Amino acid sequence: MPSAAYFRRQADICLRLALIASDEEVSNRLIVMAREYTAKGDALAGQSGANARPGADRPGSAESEGEAALPSARMPPIVR
Question: Quick check: is 77 in a domain?
Fold first, then answer.
């Protein structure tokens, strides 16, 4: 079973791809996928009682390396 950190990494990848996608439909779908992955990560973290901060459940996370995390509250809105 994937961990909360796995789902958060997948969400981060989707958001990064959405930022560089030239097709608006693809970008919007990637943002939706990122939100879904973030929700799954949050749900797993809640079930296990783990800290809800992205990357908090693994050493050497992007946050500790100086990269800003991308929490779901800061995800760009879906444009249709």
Answer: no
